[in-house]
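Write out the 3D structure for:
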Amino acid sequence: MAIESRTPPAGAVIHSDRGAQFGSWAFTDRAKASGLVPSMGSIADCFDNAVIESFWSRMQVELLDRRRWKTRIELANAIFEYLEIWHNRRRRHSALGWLSPLAPVIHVGAD
């Protein structure tokens, strides 16, 4: 889904942990077929996980802990909306200089 909606440039690096889904042949083949370069962190390297751990913590506080979900579909829709509408488009992130992930990149000193 992210490949189609964001159309990353060829050679973009997608970094992941050592989860089974990210080490699978299917994931690696799909990434390479899309022109992406898969990257995987080393074992017991806490710095690889800092951003995603922060993300999971924020999603827990901002979405998951705020109510009970009646169905899996309701939860899936809420997570999709949180990610695609709030987190990626509007929420500002300290790791990105207080921009949202989809904010236009401004090059300082560019003509």
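Residues 106-111 have pLDDT under 50 and may be disordered.
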